[in-house]
Design a protein that fits this description.
Distance between the termini: 52 Å
Low-confidence stretches: none
Shape: globular
Strand order of the largest sheet: 13-12-1-5-3-19-20
Mean pLDDT: 96
Radius of gyration: 27 Å
Length: 488
C-alpha cells in the first residue's frame, strides 16, 4: 500500500486486540459492557501538570470505526480467525459511550481523562488508537506550553515538521503545539486542515542560489515588500548579514514606503548576536524591525537567552518541540476498571509490586476543587454514582496520608468528565482549536497555582478521594492481596 493510498485507521491497533476480541467472541463474552480508563502515571519533564489533547481525533476515529472488505480479507489471510468472527467484523460499529475531560484541560497523574463504557470487544479494539492520539498530542501540547511560558509573552511558532517522527506527527504535532500556546506553524497541511496561522520566509538555499547576499535579499524584498523577513546567518551575521539587511531596508523597501519587518538568525550565540543586531538596527533607524531566532531551542535555552538580556521578539522552535526531545514519552495507559455484572458495574483493579502501577478501580468521576478565590487546590476521585455535597464541610481522604482528618470547607467542586459520545455517536459540540487554546491559557492564568508551573521541583497537585471511594478501593486491594497470597 502506497502512502498516498486511502487507509482505514481502524487498523491502527496492536494485534493482541484482535486475538482477544476473537477469544471474547468465541466465548460469547462480547455483549458484556466494561469500563476502561485512560490516564497517565506522571507528568512529562518532571513538570507539575499536563495538558489533555487529541480528543477531537479520538471522537472522529471512534465515529468512523469499521472494517472494510480489504481489512477482513487481510485478517482471513492470517489463518487465525474463524469465518463467524470475520463476518462479525464486516458489520462492526462501535456502540459504546465515551466520557472525557474537555480538550485542553490541565490534568494530573492517575485521573481518567477518558473513560470508555462499551461492549467488551468495542472497548478492547480502540485501545491503541486512543492512546496514540492522546499520548502524542498531550505530550506536544504540554512541551509547547513550557516553551511558551519560558518565552515570557514573546511569540513561539512551531518550526518542527522536518524533525518530526513522520508526516502525521508533524501535522498533529502542530495542532497540539497550537493548543499549548504556539501562535502558528510552518507546516502547511496543519494550517489548511486546522486553520492554524502559517508563517515562513526563506531558507539558506535562497541566499546561496543567488551568490550575492544583497541580491538575494533585494529580490526577496521585491517579492514580499509587506512581509520581508531576512535570514542573516548564511555567511557572516554581523559583517555581512546585518549590513545587507539594512541596505535592503534603505535602498529597496523605504523607497516603496515599506519597512523591514524582521530578521532571523538560525545559528551561533543567539543571546550575544541578538544584542549586537539590535544595536545595529536601532542605529540605522530600524527600531521596529523584529528579531526572530531559531535553532535547537527549548524552554531552558530560551530562559537562558532571555536571562542574558537577548532582545528577542519571536522564537521558532523545531525538533525539541515537535519531538518533546527531553522527555519523548507521555506514558498514558488504558486499563480496565469495571465489568458489568447483573446490571451493575463491578470494580476491577490491577495490583503490582510497583506502587505507581496499582490502578484506581470502578466507574469514577473526577472533581476539581476550587477555593474562594477560584484557584484549584486539588482534584478528587469519587464513585460515578455518588453525590458530592459541598454545601457543608466535606470530609475527604488523602490516599498518601489516610490517617489525617481533613475536610473542604467553603470550597466548590466541578466535575471534569462529561459524556461526549453516546452509542458511538458524538453528543456534544466540540470547541474550535482557538477556543481550546484560550481554555488552556485561562486555566494556567486564573486557576492553576504558579507553584505547579515551575520547571524545577513544582508543587504537587493533590489527588484526593471521597471516603466512600477510598473505602471501596482499600477493600478491593485487601481482597486482591489475599488472593495473591493464596488465602482466597
Amino acid at each position: 500500500m502506497a502512502q498516498h493510498a486511502e487507509r482505514n485507521i481502524t487498523m491502527v491497533m496492536d494485534f493482541y486486540e484482535m486475538t482477544m476480541a476473537n477469544g471474547y467472541f468465541q466465548n460469547e463474552e462480547h455483549p458484556k459492557r466494561v469500563v476502561f480508563d485512560v490516564f497517565t502515571r506522571k507528568n512529562p519533564d518532571g513538570g507539575g501538570y499536563s495538558i489533555f489533547a487529541g480528543l477531537e481525533q479520538v471522537i472522529e476515529y471512534v465515529e468512523n470505526l469499521h472494517f472494510s472488505k480489504e481489512d477482513v480479507e487481510y485478517f482471513r489471510s492470517l489463518n487465525q480467525f474463524p469465518e463467524s468472527f470475520l463476518t462479525y467484523l464486516e458489520n462492526f460499529r462501535f456502540h459504546g459511550d465515551l466520557y472525557a475531560f474537555p480538550e485542553g484541560t490541565i490534568m494530573y497523574p492517575n485521573e481518567p481523562c477518558i473513560t470508555v463504557v462499551a461492549p467488551l470487544i468495542d472497548a478492547q479494539l480502540v485501545e491503541t488508537a486512543i492512546l496514540a492520539q492522546v499520548n502524542h498530542q498531550s505530550l506536544i501540547a504540554t512541551k509547547t506550553n513550557r516553551i511558551v511560558q519560558a518565552a515570557q509573552g514573546r511569540a513561539v511558532s512551531d518550526f518542527g515538521a522536518r524533525r518530526a517522527h513522520n508526516m502525521d506527527a508533524a501535522v498533529y504535532g502542530a495542532r497540539a503545539a497550537y493548543i499549548g500556546g504556539a501562535v502558528g506553524t510552518a507546516t502547511v497541511l496543519a494550517g489548511q486542515q486546522f486553520g492554524i496561522p502559517v508563517s515562513g520566509t526563506m531558507a539558506h538555499s535562497w541566499v546561496m542560489y543567488y551568490g550575492s547576499e544583497y541580491t538575494a535579499f533585494r529580490k526577496y524584498a521585491e517579492c514580499y515588500p509587506d512581509n520581508t523577513v531576512l535570514l542573516l546567518d548564511t555567511y557572516d551575521v554581523l559583517h555581512s548579514g546585518v549590513p545587507n539587511a539594512i541596505r535592503t531596508a534603505k535602498e529597496v523597501l523605504e523607497p516603496m514606503g515599506k519597512r523591514l519587518k524582521g530578521i532571523r538568525i538560525d545559528s551561533g550565540d543567539l543571546a550575544y548576536l541578538s544584542k549586537r543586531i539590535r544595536c545595529m538596527l536601532d542605529e540605522a533607524g530600524l527600531e521596529d524591525c523584529k528579531i526572530i531566532v531559531s535553532n535547537s531551542l527549548d524552554e531552558y535555552t530560551i530562559s537562558s537567552i532571555l536571562a542574558q538580556g537577548g532582545p528577542i521578539d519571536s522564537f521558532g522552535v523545531g525538533e525539541r518541540l515537535i519531538t518533546s526531545m527531553s522527555d519523548p514519552v507521555f506514558g498514558a495507559v488504558y486499563k480496565i476498571s469495571a465489568v458489568e455484572q447483573n446490571g451493575k458495574f463491578e470494580p476491577r483493579m490491577k495490583i503490582s509490586e510497583v506502587v505507581e502501577k496499582i490502578t484506581n478501580p470502578g466507574r469514577k468521576q473526577v472533581y476539581r476543587i476550587y477555593d474562594q478565590k477560584g484557584e484549584a487546590v486539588a482534584d478528587m476521585l469519587a464513585d460515578a454514582e455518588e453525590t458530592v455535597d459541598f454545601t457543608k464541610p466535606y470530609r475527604f481522604i488523602d490516599p498518601e496520608q489516610p490517617w489525617k482528618e481533613r475536610s473542604f470547607e467553603g470550597f466548590t467542586a466541578k466535575p471534569l468528565q462529561k459524556l461526549v459520545m453516546k452509542d458511538g455517536k458524538r453528543c456534544v459540540e466540540l470547541p474550535s482549536l482557538k477556543e481550546i487554546q484560550q481554555y488552556v491559557k485561562y486555566q494556567l492564568d486564573k486557576e492553576i497555582w504558579p507553584e505547579e508551573q515551575r520547571f524545577d521541583n513544582p508543587h504537587r497537585h493533590y489527588l484526593d478521594m471521597t471516603p466512600g471511594y477510598y473505602d471501596m478501593r482499600m477493600k478491593l486491594l485487601d481482597k486482591l492481596s489475599n488472593h495473591k497470597r493464596g488465602k482466597i
